[in-house]
Amino acid sequence: MKLAITYDNGQVFQHFGKTEAFKIYDIVEGKVGASMVMSTNGQGHGALAGLLRGLGISVLICGGIGPGAQDALASLDITVIPGITGDVDQAVQDFVDGKLVPNTEALCNHHHEGAAHNCGAHSCGTGGCHSH
To answer: 31 exposed, middle or buried (CB, 10 Å; 0-12, 13-18, 19+)?
Structure first.
């Protein structure tokens, strides 16, 4: 199985649609296998779901994510685990160990244009989301 996680300098990036990189992991026989960091090449919200599907990803771990992106990923049979913060490697290990709990409060139900607002577990300033 292949798993992707939104990535920024070793941490879970907090806005799916603006992530500049994913860390991709192979999960083999219930263990974390090889991994690599891959740039999104500036692709935004709409293209990211297709990019992940093309890589054979079946699970996405991320911070905040909006309903459009959730729907696009679900339509491609990619399971989303939202609202995750902290170290990416630890998050993946917790997933493999069955200890990773999604935080559905981090689901963004608005479009990120303009004014600052709060998306559950993270605050979003003008133009994007940033961790706490």
So the answer is: exposed
Residue 131 CB-half CA count within 13 A: 16
CATH 3.30.110.30 is right for the domain spanning 2-130: no
pLDDT computed for residue 31 by the predictor? 96
Q: What interhelical angle do 45-54 and 67-75 show, nearest 10? A: 30
Please give the Cα distance from 100 to 79 (Å, whole number).
13
The owner of tokens 């689901």 is 107
- Does residue 119 surpass a pLDDT of 80? no
Nearest to 74 by CA among 53, 95, 98, 88: 53
Tens of pLDDT, residue by residue over 33-73, are 999 999 998 776 668 999 999 999 999 999 999 888 999 99
Q: How far is CA 68 from CA 6, 53, 80, 125, 128, in A?
A: 17, 16, 12, 20, 16
What are the boundaries of each domain within the chain?
2-130
